[in-house]
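User: Before I run my own analysis I want an independent prediction to cross-check against. Here's the chain; please return only the structure tokens and, at the end, one sentence I can use as a sanity check.
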Amino acid sequence: MTWTIGGKTDDQGIVALWTHGKFRGAPAGTFKVAVEKVVNEGEAEMLEAANREDFAAANRIQVNSFSFVEEKYTTVGTTPIEIEITPKSRTIEIDAGPAVKIRREYMR
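Assistant: Structure tokens:
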């Protein structure tokens, strides 16, 4: 059986896992972990202008997109991160590599 397990980190980098998006926690087993953090600088301002229907202003706002995780960590096929969850697991620390800031293309 394939399990879909995921979650989002809080400000301290702690994530609560959910299985199939509706069951809190994760089943016991060994899993590959993909990590992604993307920041779109200027996106909030662009969306705000678009919501006001000021499309000319929205189009003038440049949005810069950055990934803060090396690409190899972002997919299950390439990530070296693997965790084991047991019935007693509560907290598992992972290392998602060194801090990076990689420019990405922002899709409007």
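Sanity check: The CA atoms of residues 25 and 48 lie 35 Å apart.
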